[in-house]
Amino acid sequence: MLFNSGVFLKFFAAFLLLYFLLRHHLQARNVLIVVASYLFYGWWDYRFLSLLAFSSLLDYGVGLGLQRLQDPNRRKLLLGFSMLINLSILGFFKYYDFFAQSLAALMTELHIPVRLQTLNLILPVGISFYTFQSMSYAIDVYRGQVKATRNLVNFLAFVSFFPQLVAGPIERARHLLPQFEPTLKITRPMLEEGLWLCLWGMFQKVVLADNLAPLVEMVYGHSNPGGPMVILGTIAFAFQIYCDFAGYSDIARGSAKLLGFDIMVNFNLPYAAVNLRDFWRRWHVSFSTWLRDYLYISLGGNRLGALRTHFNIFVTMLLGGLWHGAAWNFVLWGLWHGAGLSVHRLWTKRDKTLRHDESFPLPLTPRPSSLSPTGGEGQGEGAVLRTNSAFRFLAWLATMLFVLYGWLLFRAGSFAHIVSLTRALGTFSLPVWTQSYCLNLAVFTLPLAAMQIWQAKTNNLLAPLTLPRWAQALLQGVLLIAIVLFWEKEKVPFIYFQF
Predict the structure, then answer these.
(1) Is 337 marked active-site?
(2) Domain residues for 226?
(3) CA-based angle 85:87:88, to the nearest 5?
(4) In a domain, 321, yes or no
(5) 96-110, 111-125, 332-346, 417-431: lowest mean pLDDT where?
């Protein structure tokens, strides 16, 4: 079920009616959330409901076992069992065909006859997201950071909560799970914030991202694009993937806010980043912090020497790239960012204030309605950049060029396509439709650019809610009209549904 569909609007309207009737009856309310979430997920393909239920029940039982066991070895063995099962399911559906095809190709190159059967598996939507969310609960219980819950309904609601089920944010148990326990008070400011986030998120998706998609395809589907068109197409994709994914996250946060729940901010003006580490503190925050907490630090962080630190960064980003999909372009994208983060660490290693867990991007700790456009850096590199606007601009430009080439790797369909596009960057040819292309690109990127400049200047992601009531109504009315005008009968799925 897609957010940008009439079916979801009817589903959510019916759910809201029942939800507000049951909001003071905790157990009935949470049962309703579970039933609605399973209906939401099963609408896509009911056969995969069993995977969602199995993953949830597995880690529910593992959590209780970890809470009860005292022997460290047995606790470690139980956690390992949970991770093995979860990652095996994820790996089977997501990577079996990829590795089988890659191994067969390698054996062929070595002139070793081998026949490997591919299964052409359907990837269950959202499996990467809910698997990571469920696994994080078991790991947090093992580490003693949260207590295992005995309430099965609450835990099922935590894993399957439909606003963020299929594309995040990847929530932590210590933040979301306790919200299923009390009676939630829904205030007028919460409703206003939720409505704004839903409208702005839908505008980003339906009006901006979906109209940038054909512009991207015109370049990336072209057999021989020139350098300027590759650059323009990659800029279009940078805006498309942001509007698509951040739009989903905003709708998820807004829908949850209308129900009285708080979901973490997943994007904080990432294209305002002044270095690569800053970018990853702003882009897909729930995922980058998951990698940091459960992979990078577990590998040793930077506690085991310089070489091991760089190795850990590369491994973390390599697996982060592979998480996005079973394809070599995602592997290269992860390695590209791993190399960038490693070089950035070498450049800033003179900063002795870094703790062992700060070599990898840190989460932001913003106020609910006000986020620092500089990622909260108050000293060292951030302070230098703020006092030198020219250097800050150059740092921003270098970061964006690095990120844009990374998006080229991400969007390209194959290694051969990457090579072709990279070579095209050295050529210069402009097709006759360049002018109209640039005009369309400007039309569908300027609204986002204007909004984010406003948010950065006011240091507030909810800047539109500071307007007078009449101005808020006018702005929301314009967004609603644009959404209705650009609403397509054939709904375009969100990009991150495939991950």
Answers:
(1) no
(2) 188-282+364-499
(3) 60
(4) no
(5) 96-110
